[in-house]
Amino acid sequence: MPTDSLFRRVDAEGARTVEVTFDDQPLSVPAGLTVAAALLLGGVRQFRTSPVGGGPRAPYCMMGVCFECLVEIDGVPSRQSCLIEVADGMRIRSQQGARDLPFPQPEAVVMEVQP
Ligand code: FES
Questions:
Q1: pTM of the complete model
Q2: CA spacing 20 to 30 A to 89: which of 3, 37, 107, 108?
Q3: Which of 14, 72, 64 lies closest to 39, judged by CA?
Q4: 40 ligand 1 Cβ < 6 A
């Protein structure tokens, strides 16, 4: 859940804001930033959990390399929040563990073995 942010925008005077939600909680964040930067400024500290050990994860590189910033945006999972500009009305959700593949699973193939 959001807490006090350690980050401060230096040019925040008069900056335009947009309204988003993170895990159904409303947030007012500065416009013109990436989703990751906006959430960090909004006090969000956990963006997802590790699919391996369940540990908390948050943005690390802020340039599209580490994939620690994955979130669901407007229903689309595994978006790199450090590469997407925040927009008014975005519905952002944290990700818990591994995501399902977005592709339909193929039907099982039954093979008969001839004696
Ligand atoms: S913070 Fe590293 S890929 Fe987004």
A1: 0.79
A2: 3
A3: 72
A4: no
